Amino acid sequence: IRVRGFLGRLIRGCVVNFINMLQGWGSILLIPALLTYLNKEEPNLRLTTDQELLILALLYGGAKLIGRILSVFLLKYVRFRVLEPLLSAIIASCYLTLILESNSLFVTVVAMGIANMCFCVTRCELTLMEFDKHYFGTERLVLAAG
């Protein structure tokens, strides 16, 4: 199977994979650090350990559960090639929001929640894309998956 635009598809796949890798590791490392930072910087905000763990559970478990449910409906009605770059752009904009407005607990929780939902939708499909012969073509599939 030959596909047109292999280089563009390869670059798009690399960008999506890179953003997903950043979100996967970034959320694990960034969210606890942000909560600790906000706890120290905001004098009227004092989060207890229980509150921090509840926020982490909501961001990891709740957002990923909602994201997995959303993925079933989104992939049924939106094409994969449209959905992946769109969700990657949403994840990138969530991180940009954290950079621009970093002193708000609400903004931090909402932005990272949205990013985790998008990550959950894209992760499984991204893994499948790496081995899709119709996306990369059979001639260059090994090059793209490597």
Number of helices: 6
Order of helices and strands: HHHHHH
Low-confidence stretches: none
Strand content: under 5%
The whole-number mean of residue pLDDT values reads: 78
Q: Largest beta sheet, briefly?
A: none
How helical, in percent, are the residues? over 70%
Tell me the distance between the termini: 18 Å
* Shape field: elongated
What is the count of β-strands? 0
User: How large, in whole angstroms, is the Cα Rg?
Assistant: 18 Å
SSE-based structural type: mainly alpha
Protein architecture, described:
It is a single chain. By secondary structure, the protein is mainly α. Helix content is 82%, strand content 0%. α1 (6-41) runs parallel beside α3 and α3 (80-100) packs antiparallel against α4. The two termini are 18 Å apart. The mean pLDDT is 78.
Provide a concise account of the structure shown.
This protein has 146 residues and is an all-alpha fold. Helix content is 82%, strand content 0%.
